[in-house]
Amino acid sequence: MFTVRFRLSNEFVMRPHTHPKHERVTILDGQVHVAFGIHAERDDAKVFGPGDYYVNSRDVIHAVWIDKPTVVQITDVGPWEATFVTAP
User: Which of 17, 23, 75, 77 lies at a CB distance of 3.0 to 4.6 Å from 3, suitable for a disulfide?
Assistant: First the structure.
């Protein structure tokens, strides 16, 4: 098990992807937009702010958008990996 913090600058996008294990995410500063599914769109994203916590379940497709400086903390079981997916 590990915990890592990422400091992200303006306009970060992580296109639809999955993880092989549950990923626990805590927002420490800033704002994260998360939408689910192969056709995830920013307009459908749920917004998380400082102090919010969410779990990306194993093998669930999701995408992430960040617009301003943000700090996220991720706790997972290694090795951590992201598998990007594309719509058929």
Answer: 75
